[in-house]
Amino acid sequence: MRELVYYVAVSLDGFIAGPAGEFDAFPIEGDHMDAINERYADTIPTDLALALGIERTTPMFDAVLMGWNTYAVGLPMGVSSPYRHLRQIVFSRSKRAEADDVQTTDEDPVALVRRLKREPGDAIWLCGGGALASSLLGEIDRLVLKRSPIVFGAGIPLFAPRAYAPERFDEVATTAFGSGVVLSEYVRAS
Ligand SMILES: NC(=O)c1ccc[n+]([C@@H]2O[C@H](COP(=O)([O-])OP(=O)(O)OC[C@H]3O[C@@H](n4cnc5c(N)ncnc54)[C@H](OP(=O)(O)O)[C@@H]3O)[C@@H](O)[C@H]2O)c1
């Protein structure tokens, strides 16, 4: 069955962006970049990958899920279909993406993900943000954290607050880069 993979950059104190969506503190230079870009080439916006000459040699994902706030980050720059090499699904109860190749839905994310998992295909990338990830926590099969050696102090959490109910994941791989970025992969404990 297809896995739902939450692959995301996070600060040491568990934030995926600053309070106003800032992400410039995450390091975009260093030895982690080539390794991560090669392995997770699917997660680079289509136009950026083309500009950088990055090829998807071993596709991992064929679909991406975004909360509206995550999708909306590109809109002021005119980017309305950021990952057009993937099937793009955006969750919103009130808005609609204009791009033809972006599906907007107000369906319950859990029901939609369960249906997607039953369809044939590659893994599904949960891009974020924290609000959508919180709704989908119970469906996440694999968690891939790109942890940067930075403390934000405040911001948008990896998972928006929800009821206290610990869910265990087992660490399956960790790579520490000279840049200080640590890539850790976890699978849901069985
Ligand atoms: N560090 C990283 O790798 C990374 C990755 C992704 C995102 N981010 C950052 O995360 C921030 C956004 O995160 P966020 O937590 O604020 O928001 P988000 O999860 O991206 O989006 C929240 C919105 O999605 C819709 N939504 C969420 N859950 C839903 C549900 N169960 N059913 C229907 N619609 C639902 C709602 O939109 P409506 O209000 O329109 O109904 C909600 O307001 C951005 O700043 C982005 O840059 C960082």
Spatial ordering of strands, largest sheet:
5-4-3-6-1-7-10-9
CATH topology of the domain at 1-10 and 32-137: Dihydrofolate Reductase, subunit A
| SSE ordering | EEHHEHEEHEHEEEE
Alpha carbon gap, first and last residue: 15 Å
Small molecules bound in the structure, each named once: NADP nicotinamide-adenine-dinucleotide phosphate
What's the CATH H-level superfamily name of the domain at 1-10 and 32-137? Answer: Dihydrofolate Reductase, subunit A
Molecular shape: globular
Report the CATH C-level class of the domain at 1-10 and 32-137: Alpha Beta
SS content category: alpha/beta
- Flag low-confidence runs: none
| Helix amount | 10-25%
| Radius of gyration from CA coordinates | 16 Å
Strand content: 25-35%
Please, how many helices?
5
Care to describe what's here?
The strands form two sheets. Strands 5-4-3-6-1-7-10-9 form an eight-stranded mixed beta sheet. Strands 2-8 form a two-stranded antiparallel sheet. The chain has a domain at 1-10 and 32-137: 3-Layer(aba) Sandwich (Dihydrofolate Reductase, subunit A), CATH 3.40.430. The protein is globular. With 190 residues, it is of the alpha/beta class. The longest helix has 10 residues, at 109-118. The protein has helices at residues 31-39, 46-52, 68-71, 109-118, 130-136, and strands spanning 4-10, 15-17, 61-67, 87-91, 102-105, 123-128, 142-147, 156-157, 169-176, 182-188.
